[in-house]
């Protein structure tokens, strides 16, 4: 029986408007989670796109620093490169420089993937951190309140790259994924954890994402080639925040900049 996913994509003029929309969305989701459950657990992706959003959240001249429920927020990572935390490629370093050093989060509210360790050990340690923080038993899967994803121009998301074993990892919560096309290993949440989140959204910008995004959303289902297609949130909804360049090959949005698709998986 095919599952239907209601896709909503919101299209913004450029990278600044996109970043601002993402910051607003983080704030809105965080406030909702705290109102409902007294805390908010967020998992963020790395790469370059989130930088502008993190900078906005930390900017004292913007509203976010004042109104975000930082005290009730726990910050986790969707994935990490197998490098030390001060390495230029580290997602943690990017997030620390853009945001963590400038917002009132205590160290115990931030859960870093230890990329400096051997990949399998880093994955195992992060999995036990999740089990402890979420008080998981048996086969339970952690449910993040908000989980932000990017997408590579090869259709990968998190560190689940085309034709890698991570596509098929269903048992673990965190996986050490060998990525031969990048001659590296990555540590990543597995897609069953990602789709469990209360709110999963993609944050995608740039011309080079237009074609892969079009194929992910409107092309044949082929997750080996387009792992982003694995992201079918359990709540049946998928939100994408896009800039015009990334949305160029999708059906034009309505007058308010919102487009809707229903995809069957
Ligand atoms: C990473 C990310 C990865 C990222 C995409 C898009 O570790 O790189 O988690 O999944 O979201 O590669 O990256 P850009 O935002 O740099 O295009």
* N→C terminal distance: 9 Å
- Share of helix among residues? 25-40%
Q: Helix-strand pattern, N to C?
A: EHEHHEEHEHEEEHEHEE
Secondary-structure content class:
alpha/beta
- Ions, cofactors and other bound molecules: 6-phosphogluconic acid
Judging from the principal axes of the Cα atoms, what is the shape?
globular
Number of helices: 7
Low-confidence parts, pLDDT < 50 over ≥5 residues? none
| Biggest beta sheet attributes | 8 strands, mixed
Nearest-integer average pLDDT: 97
The amount of beta strand, in percent, is: 15-25%
- Our Rg estimate from Cα atoms comes to 17 Å
Number of strands: 11
Q: What are the key terms here?
A:
23% strand; 3-stranded antiparallel sheet; binds 6-phosphogluconic acid; 265 residues; 8-stranded mixed sheet; 27% helix; alpha/beta; 11 strands
């Amino acid at each position: 029986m095919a599952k239907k996913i209601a896709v909503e994509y919101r299209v913004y003029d450029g990278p600044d408007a996109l970043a601002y929309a993402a910051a607003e969305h983080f704030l809105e989701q965080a406030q909702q989670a705290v109102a409902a459950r007294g805390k908010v657990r967020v998992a963020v992706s790395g790469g370059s796109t989130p930088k502008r959003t993190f900078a906005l959240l930390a900017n004292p001249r913007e509203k976010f620093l004042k109104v975000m429920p930082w005290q009730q927020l726990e910050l986790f990572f969707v994935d990490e490169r197998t490098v030390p935390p001060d390495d230029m490629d580290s997602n943690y370093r990017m997030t620390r420089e853009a945001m963590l050093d400038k917002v009132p989060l205590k160290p115990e509210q931030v859960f870093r993937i230890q990329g400096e360790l051997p990949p399998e050990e880093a994955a195992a340690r992060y999995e036990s951190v999740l089990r402890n923080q979420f008080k998981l038993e048996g086969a339970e899967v952690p449910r993040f309140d908000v989980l932000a994803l990017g997408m590579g121009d090869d259709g990968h998301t998190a560190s689940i790259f085309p034709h890698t074993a991570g596509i098929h990892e269903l048992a673990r919560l965190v996986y050490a994924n060998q990525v031969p096309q990048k001659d590296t290993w990555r540590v990543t949440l597995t897609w069953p954890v990602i789709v469990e989140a209360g709110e999963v959204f993609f944050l995608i910008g740039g011309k080079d994402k237009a074609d892969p995004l079009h194929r992910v959303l409107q092309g044949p289902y082929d997750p080996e080639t387009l792992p982003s297609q694995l992201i079918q949130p359990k709540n049946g909804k998928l939100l994408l925040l896009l800039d015009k360049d990334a949305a160029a090959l999708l059906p034009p949005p309505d007058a308010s900049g919102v487009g809707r698709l229903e995809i069957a998986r």
